[in-house]
Amino acid sequence: RVAPLFIVKTGTTTLNNAKVLNLSIPLTINNGATLSTSASNFGLTFGGNFVNSGTLTAGSSPIIINNTMPTQNIAGFTTSGTVTLNKPSGTAVLTGNVSTNNLTLTSGTVILNVYTLTISGSISGGSANSYVVTNNTTGTLNQIVGGTPVTFPVGFGLSDYTPITFSNSSTPRNYGVTLLRVTTDTKTGGLGRQWVVNETRPL
Hints:
Blueprint: E1 5-7, E2 11-14, E3 19-21, E4 27-29, E5 33-36, E6 44-46, E7 50-52, E8 55-57, E9 63-66, E10 71-74, E11 77-94, E12 98-111, E13 116-119, E14 123-125, E15 130-133, E16 140-145, E17 150-152, E18 154-155, E19 164-166, E20 173-181, E21 193-200
Parallel strand pairs: 1-4, 2-5, 3-6, 4-7, 5-8, 6-9, 9-11, 10-11, 11-12, 12-13, 12-14, 12-15, 13-16, 15-18
Antiparallel strand pairs: 16-20, 17-19, 20-21
């Protein structure tokens, strides 16, 4: 059995190349420690759980979430690169807020719980096979919307893909979307879904 990878010391540990951590190697950054992907912005692949009690300095590094864990916990982090979700099976579950420039949805779902997933650039992919699950009233998918239509690839739960698309003819705005399940009228019917949208001007 491969022992978990722990960042145990205080101070900063810097990657010297791209790291692919498989299912057997969860990553834990302990309190007071920092993991840096370096000025070279080496890529980092989470194949197991990611626990972050310290700091991940990711710069513009690409971050990949993959493998086939039924439930893969991912702590909060920020990158100005691209986050790619590529899980042939299972789901990723956020345990902190995640911010990234771009999000690529290839396969699998990511559950927000009470946290936010903020995209400053664009989302590619997104389908019934790969989307963002907003399963809580405070978990939101955030993205800037301008004149070009932007699709928010959201669903309330697993096997429940219900995306919504916006465009904005004025100054680009931040949109935060949460999809909720609601009770429909027995006479009129309906989707039984409610998209809660918060709109703010970018700083």
